[in-house]
Structures are given as C-alpha cells and as structure tokens.
Design brief:
The protein has 13 helices and 17 strands. The protein has about 375 residues and is α/β, with parallel strands linked by helices. The strands form 4 sheets. Strands 3, 4, 5, 8, 9, 16 and 17 form a 7-stranded mixed β-sheet that branches. It has a 6-stranded parallel β-sheet with strand order 12-11-10-13-14-15. A two-stranded antiparallel sheet has the order 1-2. The protein is globular and about 65 Å long.
C-alpha cells in the first residue's frame, strides 16, 4: 500500500474520531497542526489523553526523512505519558484515571518466537508507535497529539512518585539503556561501566548505573561536560576521548561500556578501555558504518553487541525501578507552539537533556 493510500484509508475508517496533532508534511520537518483519525476504543484498547510527550532524536530523523522511510504526514512521538480516559470491556489492568505510558511500539505479530518468549521488541512485524503500518493497514500516529488509542498489551503503568513529564523520556531513552545493562551483567554493584556520550540516552544511563551501585565513567568529546557529569549527575570519573592521557588512565578497567553516541568513528581506543571479556553495547545509531578492528575484539575476548528498546515487561520493570530509586530524565518542558524551535535546537545538540512537549496544557485547536 502506498503511503498516501494508507493515510487516506485511516481518514476513512468507520467508528473513528478526530484528534488534534502536530505533523510534518515533507522532509523540511516543519510541524503544523493537523486533524488525525483515531479509532474508537475497542474491547482490548485503552484510550489515553496525552499530557506529555518527549522528543527523541529518532523523531527528528523521521520527520526529515533521514532514514528514507517516512510516511507523510508524520505525527511523531513515542515517549507518551498521559491519563486513561476509557478502557474496553476486556481490559483488566487499567481503568479511567490511571497514569500510563506508551513507548516505541503499539503492536506485533503476537505469534513469532520473539513475541512468545517476551521479546516482542524484536518481532520482525513490530508496529512502531508512529510512521508504521499497523496490521489493519492504517498508518500509526504518535504522541504529538491530544490522545491515542492503544492495545492494553502495549501500555505500561506510571508508578506513583514518578513525575509524568520527567518520566516520559524513560519510555524510550530509559528502557534503551536499562535493558542492555541488565542483560549483560552491567547492573552489579561495584562493577565499572563506561558511558560514551552525555546526551538524552547517556545522562539516563549514568543515573541508572549509579542506582545499580556501579562505578561510572563518562567518556565524551566535550571537556565542558566534565562538571555536569561528575558534580550534578554523580559520575565517578570523566575522560575526554580525544585526550590520550585521559584514555590511558582508564585503559583495561571497565567491565562494560554503553555506547550512546551517534558519531561514526574507530572503536579501537574504546575497546582498549575494556577488561578482558568486557562488553560494549551499542544503543546509538550512527549514520555511517562503524570502524571495528578485529584484533581489538578477538585479542581480549571482547564483545560488541547491540540493543534495541525493550519489551513491555522490561519497560514496566524499568519504570518501577526508576520510581523506587528516584531516576528520572532531566528535561526542558516546551509548549506545542515551541516544538519547531525545540527540534532546531535538538539538531544542534542544544538541549539538556530531553525536550518534553506539554501536550495537555498547550496543544489547542486555536
């Protein structure tokens, strides 16, 4: 189905309702108000009034068609925090008035090996929260809108004590770093983990690592971030990746590295920071291929792995852990009419550390 046909079909769905959103209509990425169609609440659905939605770097890539897969109009947003307004008759886990979240996916095939083992984020037919074609042929629209309707399977509870605005980015950034740390043994107290990059993902990785009781070293190309990393976020050390003396001081000391960077560069100097059998987990998405020297991996029995999002159960576990340990994103709250400026700043790296749109208070039809 052509993208335009899919969008037209969504507009013609029976038993549907209109909702206000913000959409990009071409690769300029400029967002303007749009009326989109949301299905009525089905038997297994949860209808949610969106209160906050984080701005992920993936949103920027998609609205500008930098990954060459955009289906216009694009209504982005997969860090959705809101309140339940209605549930279907089969829904047991949620009720009207509950604070809930929706992350990066809203459907899967539900029958493949990945789905059956609880790793539905790796389903080959995963339906993303926006810019994806759902099983009924409609195009998904994300959280830059006043409401969403989502299957109960893909909704998580917001724990008491976790603010919705600062918790929203955890639904993507948080689970993206939390899951590989848990899966690769980088959550054990006393172990040493490096975090490459101190942005939206990196600052949350530092917070989770400290909550796990780990020693944390931030690795950055920006010397000016030293004070922020150590004094405010609580990292134990900070090294500048272009400073040979800095890098030498931590060589062979790390059990693992969470690589959140989007830059394409040689991995040799970073692999040298790992202990034998250490692991580097890639969660950033460089546009160009990585330079991976084989001897740097093979010689120390080291591992280079990737990780993408997390399952729904992973996401709920992460949210509960965050609430218990006081982990939340550092955000800049922006109005709906400020979103284009925020996206321009994000493209320049001018954010500390996540923009969140105040949808509930500022997305208005006028």
């Amino acid at each position: 189905m052509a993208p335009t046909a899919a969008a037209e079909q969504q507009q013609q769905l029976p038993q549907a309702r209109k909702a206000l959103g913000l959409a990009a209509h071409d690769a300029s990425g400029h967002l303007t108000p749009i009326r989109i169609t949301r299905r009525n609440t089905g038997d297994d659905d949860v209808s949610i009034k969106v209160l906050y939605c984080g701005i992920c770097h993936s949103d920027l890539h998609t609205i500008k068609n930098e990954w060459r897969n955009s289906i216009y109009p694009v209504v982005a947003g997969h860090e959705i925090a809101g309140v339940v307004t209605e549930v279907g008759k089969n829904v047991a886990r949620f009720k009207a008035g509950d604070n809930v979240g929706v992350g990066c996916m809203v459907n899967t095939c539900r029958s493949c090996e990945s789905c059956e083992e609880g790793s539905e984020n790796y389903c080959s037919r995963v339906v993303f929260t926006y810019n994806s074609v759902d099983r009924d042929g409609t195009v998904t629209y994300g959280g830059y809108s006043e409401m969403v309707v989502v299957s109960e399977r893909f909704v998580v509870q917001f724990p008491d004590g976790l603010p919705l605005d600062r918790g929203a980015p955890l639904l993507c950034a948080g689970v993206t770093v939390y899951v590989p740390m848990k899966q690769h043994g980088l959550s054990e107290p006393g172990k040493h983990v490096g975090v490459i990059g101190l942005g939206g993902l990196g600052h949350v990785a530092v917070k989770f690592a400290k909550a796990f009781g780990m020693k944390v070293t931030v690795i950055s190309t920006s010397p000016e971030k030293r004070h922020e990393a150590v004094e405010r976020l609580g990292a134990d050390a900070f090294v500048v990746s272009t400073n040979a003396s800095d890098m030498k001081s931590v060589m062979g000391t790390m059990h693992g590295i969470i690589n959140t960077a989007c830059a394409s560069t040689s991995m040799y100097s970073y692999f040298a920071l790992l202990k034998p059998k250490g692991k580097m987990i890639l969660v950033g998405l460089p546009e160009k291929p990585l330079q991976v020297p084989a001897f740097a991996l093979v010689g120390g029995g080291k591992t280079l792995a990737g990780s993408c999002m997390g399952s729904i159960s992973d996401t709920q576990e992460m949210m509960d852990f965050a609430a218990k340990h006081g982990v939340a994103a550092d955000v800049e709250l922006v109005r709906a009419d400020e979103v284009n400026t925020a996206l321009e700043r994000l493209a320049k790296g001018d954010v500390r550390y996540r923009f969140v749109i105040d949808i509930g208070n500022t997305l208005k039809s006028d």
